[in-house]
Amino acid sequence: MFYLLYVSSAVKLMDNDELLKLHQVSQKNNKRSEITGMLLYQEGNFMQIIEGNKERVLELFSKVTMDKHHKDIYKIMSGSIEKRNFNDWSMGFCNMNETGHNLNYDAFIQENIRLRTFEHDSQSAYDFIIKFNETNR
Ligand SMILES: Cc1cc2nc3c(=O)[nH]c(=O)nc-3n(C[C@H](O)[C@H](O)[C@H](O)COP(=O)(O)O)c2cc1C
User: Fold this and answer.
1) Which of the four pLDDT bands, split at 50, 70 and 90, describes residue 111?
2) Total domain count for the chain?
3) SS3 of residue 18 by DSSP
């Protein structure tokens, strides 16, 4: 099992319809290739973790990298894992601009954390998205 975590920036702010469409396409494709993960969006920035078979994860990442809807794609970390962390989701999604209802999210808002700043602290990025998923189930 392999995972990859990255951040990127949308070329323009995405509205709810665009985000919904992106989420639906991702869920459909990822289910087919047995990829799981989580996509976060916050004021024009994305953070996504994808996990599954190594070749398929790398294949998806290279496809996503070529998507013209975002830019400044920065791979934070990748590597082997024993088992999936995002079993429940072919692709979980959260628009962080909307009000959250969990502890981790509140801390995120209070500390004014920005997704892009995670590119300078890979361990925090990984811990954040794992914890985010746990508190959001
Ligand atoms: C931030 C971001 C994350 C994406 N994540 C996924 C994903 O997890 N799975 C996926 O299939 N496509 C994802 N996409 C969309 C792909 O780049 C591509 O548009 C899509 O897979 C094409 O689907 P199609 O071949 O069914 O038309 C993402 C795009 C962006 C901008």
Assistant:
1) low
2) 1
3) helix
| CA terminus-to-terminus distance, the chain | 22
Give pLDDT, residue 102. 57
- CA 26 to ligand 1 center in whole angstroms: 5
CATH code assigned at 95: 3.30.70.100
In angstroms, what CA-CA distances link 125 with 6, 21, 68, 69, 101?
Answer: 9, 25, 24, 22, 20
Alpha carbon distance 3, 17 (integer Å):
28
Q: Which domain holds residue 13?
A: 2-136
Tokens 């995972």, residue located: 3
48 lines ligand 1 (CB under 6 A): yes
